[in-house]
């Protein structure tokens, strides 16, 4: 689905967003008074300790959770309408590939559901496999691949249909540092090539700073935004940008934000 | 807690639907017999000829003779007795009969239960011993274990009639032959489950004991045996159910006079359906009670060992 | 006496060979895994033969394996007819109807939460009951022929199959369900593409348990009445006539049928759930 051309700057708009879960131990304030605008083409990272609502916010955008207060629009629609129009691809913490399908068939899964023709499916699969550097692995089963390759396949799966928002919930959290660096680099290249809007949940400060144009710092109880940092880093980012003073300064500000959130409780 | 309440209502609803369906089913099931009886008693039945009725569908007969519906729940020997008939029969043969009486369901239940328990104890004991042997001896593992597994796919209960007769011919009768059947039916599930349990500690836990220089028997008592408990209880529950079936089936071939299986068989010979159903329910209650008892022991033991979730 | 000593020697020989195999360098190979139990089984049969002959055990107590084998070969037509009556007509048709019905019911139970809450505890309860006991009732209702046997089998396999399939349909993880949600998949799509394949290992577990139950149900139901045909009928009448060689021949048939039935289901399982960790080996 192409974005509504009349609304091409703000993709996600949240105003005074609230979400309270009713649990056996009483209400839990997962999100409180969240205001945020994500523009088209932004790479936005959400960072904060567990329980700060970063994943919950991402799930709200994806209409996997329903806010209890405030307004939230995706491409000018409610999240649920956007979901029905297949406005986003979601990448979970684990690859979650179906073990009974080959990599290619896994990537075809959303395409089958959305009713693409067989020829189109083939074409898109080979295109995205190329994009995530997995060409030639389409015939393998997920359990025959390494964790990093599986996660790349799951990103390919999210890219296969024309969603222009990519929501990623700690996609590299379970991978080791070296694989992670490599995937971060690839993700940036992918983002530059596709121009997608990306929401990215992480708890790694270097990862957030390295990837994002905008870093949203959150803190728990109640889950809220404590700082929004627009990254001064250039769009072109080699891995060694992480040693530059600018990078270190942004990272420092994020760390301060996280610390401030912590001292509140 | 509200979810527990919801589940309770759901179960209650399902049970109500089952009972209602049961009553409804009694009407067409019993209508032919009822109409024959009613005709003999002088009532006007549509159609009047028994031959015509035989060819008619049950539902047509019910529509033609709706006056007979209540009688379908009160027949003496119905094809399908109504729930309350079974309940009354069970009440009369348990609470209102002396337990020494040959008509007491408690007496028959006890005959079956004692054989079940004896067989279960033997089968479980031997099963655990064999499992220990298999885990500690590579030879036994290689030679015996495949047969124990294959035995699970074979209806070994088919041996039951022969065991009864053969033991009878060498002068053994009464509780022992039934217990033998119960024993071998519970034996194999226990062997397979217990072997799995004794093998359940992972390599890291075994390596840890090796670093302590623990002996084989220490490894057994301190690691393998405790780790096997959840598996043991799972297979005990399967084993006790199998034991009960074994004891019941063991009562069939010789036309035994006592036990729930004998009640089932006698009921089926003489068309005493109410008796069959009450014996069946007694067996069900017995099975449920035994499994529940094992569940209770399981929880207590596992809690003591700090393994209960 | 010589035969008895022979039996003991045979036992020692079998055990010694297996002991060598077990401690030898090929102990973990496939071949030893097949050969060792075979040697054990043959040793037992050999001892059985020698002991029965040596101790002159009467036929009415324990026939020698050779006698059983002769009886088996001589009675092939009867055994085949009994096999068709009990296994093919009774057990197999009941198995297909029972498992099929349980599978459809499981889909309904999975779809409506209320049914799951209400029916699953009842199903779990019934699965542990001695259901063979319904045989006399069902024989009364459906007559002596194979229909009543199939009915017993239906009742026996229904609940284990139901419980397993329902568990399987709930096997898909929350994350996998969320993924389907983000694709705005319909109920049917997420059922066919996610929950059904994910349930397959559980479905096959139910199917495997049910193979044995089906044979038990079909054979035991014949103890309550049957035409003059069928494995259960043959066993109970042959026991009455003390022709134990015939009983053993029927038991051999039951064993072969049970293993073959289970093996067939297990092979289909291997082909269909090759992706599951338990099958990847």
Uncertain regions spanning at least 5 consecutive residues of chain C: none
CATH class of the largest domain in chain C: Mainly Alpha
- Under the CATH scheme, which class of the largest domain in chain A? Alpha Beta
How many angstroms separate the termini of chain A? Answer: 43 Å
- Measured on Cα atoms, how large is the radius of gyration of chain A? 18 Å
Strand content of chain C: under 5%
- Helix percent of chain A reads 25-40%
Draw up the topology in text.
The complex is a heterotrimer of chains A (265), B (309) and C (281).
Chain A: E1 10-23, E2 26-39, E3 43-47, H1 54-61, E4 69-74, H2 79-84, E5 88-91, H3 103-113, H4 118-131, H5 147-159, E6 165-169, H6 177-194, E7 197-202, H7 205-211, E8 214-219, E9 224-230, H8 245-263
Parallel strand pairs in A: 3-7, 3-8, 5-6, 6-7
Antiparallel strand pairs in A: 1-2, 1-4, 8-9
Chain B: H1 2-40, H2 50-55, H3 58-64, H4 83-94, H5 105-136, H6 138-151, H7 160-169, H8 175-198, H9 203-211, H10 216-250, H11 260-270, H12 273-304
Chain C: H1 2-23, H2 30-54, H3 65-74, H4 76-111, H5 113-127, H6 135-142, H7 146-169, H8 174-182, H9 187-222, H10 231-240, H11 244-272, H12 277-280
Helix pairs in contact in C: 1-2, 3-11, 4-5, 4-7, 4-9, 5-7, 6-7, 7-9, 9-11, 10-11
